[in-house]
Amino acid sequence: MRYAPAVIIGRAVRAAARIRKPGGGSAVPGLVVNKLAPGYLAHALNSFPRGLVIVSGSSGKSTTTKMLVSVLRAHGIRIFTNPSTANISQGLTSALLEQADVRGRIDAELGVLEMDEGHGALIADRLTPSVVVLTNVMIDQIDRFHDPQMVQGMLAKIARRASAAVVLNADDQSLLELASGLRGTAEARWFGVSHGVRVANPRGFGYAETAPEASAVTAETVVERVDGARTTITVAGEAMDVALPSRGVHYAVDAAAALSAAREILGDGFEPARAIEAIGAMEPVFGRGETTTVRGRKVEFVLVQNPASFQLNVDSLPAGTEQIMVAIGSDVRDPSYLWPVDTASLGRVRVVSGSQAQEIALQLAYDGVSIDRIEENLATALDDFLALPEPSSGGGVKTVIFSADSMRRTRAHLGLTSNSDGAGGAGSSTSTGGAGV
């Protein structure tokens, strides 16, 4: 009961924030509660009867978390999870307030949380996760972190808190190094990609055409084949044909991470058929390859956050995609880090927008991409792009490629809400896949 006053105040702040700004203000209640009751977040997260699972890493954590939650719920486990936009301390607390009773308790057996690597490291010492899942360490996050070793250190701090298992990407050198420094009772469990599966090929960036021929460890869960939005994944020697929420090898790797973690959590209770069905039925996380209807137009939203995801998403677009808009915002502090991406296959981009429109337009032009128009005002660009006649090919789908800042602004301008929040948007209808990360 000692947290009841803070929880009641936080819920009142949440209600007031929604009146003032419908669909916004989600972090404010968490900020208030964290100030009033600094111990509440850790207390709540450590209280689930079946433990806490943390998913972190540079990329793929939102989709991996949603896949894992879908699989575990299909096995009958009551899960508390956070939307992908609430992966820092105040967002996590706000997510708890959405479901907590007046005493701050959550009616769930297991917590499965996506955590930002930086904020996760800050609160790691107060948490007692049973399982930690680490997706990767991107070498190009210097616009946010100083170097990969900094990210590796933050993820190691989170991983060391695991009591049962740490699920790791066997094809990531930073995670291989991280695992060698783990101590305690937690077992290392590995997922990876079979040699011969194309990973990425951005110009001059050192990513391989295929996964490594041999890893220093043996992965128990392996992506064997990827064909668009379908993949074959071997789990403990059993081949599983899995339908993905969107196209691309990156989604297959996310699925491998989720299946590996689910098998560890469920043990002998893991049922492959249930897992396959659950992943095949899930919708993409908002913006990660989501196709929806806006103002009577079908639109595919493709989020890119670093050169690897940009390249994989460009490679995954169907040849001859007719109408493309690219919007890069203020979250890309140094646009030069996108230059290693080979964007030539885009061919033609109808509108380039966002606060970094001029920079990304220069990169596209360098790759020989034809640009119809540069419009820095994102709202105007979106309105005009949607007003273009419906594409004659590709099922009439328009494609918007954006960075995180432009994604948030697009969502706000179009009145969309995240399907990962469990809510439909004012302009949304269905999600049918695409190419996001």
From TrEMBL:
UniProt-listed InterPro entries: Lipid_II_synth_MurT, Mur-like_cat_sf, Mur_ligase_cen, MurT_C
Enzyme Commission number(s) from the entry: 6.3.5.13
Ranges annotated as biased composition (Gly residues): 422-437
Pathway(s) where this gene product acts: Cell wall biogenesis; peptidoglycan biosynthesis
Domain Lipid II isoglutaminyl synthase (glutamine-hydrolyzing) subunit MurT C-terminal: 303-384
UniProt GO BP: cell wall organization; peptidoglycan biosynthetic process; regulation of cell shape
Region described as Disordered: 415-437
Keyword Metal-binding: yes
Superkingdom, natural source: Bacteria
GO MF: acid-amino acid ligase activity; ATP binding; carbon-nitrogen ligase activity on lipid II; metal ion binding
Mur ligase central domain ranges (all copies): 55-261
Catalytic activity line of the entry: beta-D-GlcNAc-(1->4)-Mur2Ac(oyl-L-Ala-gamma-D-Glu-L-Lys-D-Ala-D-Ala)-di-trans,octa-cis-undecaprenyl diphosphate + L-glutamine + ATP + H2O = beta-D-GlcNAc-(1->4)-Mur2Ac(oyl-L-Ala-D-isoglutaminyl-L-Lys-D-Ala-D-Ala)-di-trans,octa-cis-undecaprenyl diphosphate + L-glutamate + ADP + phosphate + H(+); beta-D-GlcNAc-(1->4)-Mur2Ac(oyl-L-Ala-gamma-D-O-P-Glu-L-Lys-D-Ala-D-Ala)-di-trans,octa-cis-undecaprenyl diphosphate + NH4(+) = beta-D-GlcNAc-(1->4)-Mur2Ac(oyl-L-Ala-D-isoglutaminyl-L-Lys-D-Ala-D-Ala)-di-trans,octa-cis-undecaprenyl diphosphate + phosphate + H(+); beta-D-GlcNAc-(1->4)-Mur2Ac(oyl-L-Ala-gamma-D-Glu-L-Lys-D-Ala-D-Ala)-di-trans,octa-cis-undecaprenyl diphosphate + ATP = beta-D-GlcNAc-(1->4)-Mur2Ac(oyl-L-Ala-gamma-D-O-P-Glu-L-Lys-D-Ala-D-Ala)-di-trans,octa-cis-undecaprenyl diphosphate + ADP
Keywords: ATP-binding, Cell shape, Cell wall biogenesis/degradation, Ligase, Metal-binding, Nucleotide-binding, Peptidoglycan synthesis
Its biological purpose: The lipid II isoglutaminyl synthase complex catalyzes the formation of alpha-D-isoglutamine in the cell wall lipid II stem peptide. The MurT subunit catalyzes the ATP-dependent amidation of D-glutamate residue of lipid II, converting it to an isoglutamine residue.
HAMAP family found in the cross-reference section: Lipid_II_synth_MurT (MF_02214)
Family: Belongs to the MurCDEF family. MurT subfamily.
Subunit and interaction comment: Forms a heterodimer with GatD.
Protein name, as recorded: Lipid II isoglutaminyl synthase (glutamine-hydrolyzing) subunit MurT
Species whose genome carries this gene: Compostimonas suwonensis
Gene label: murT
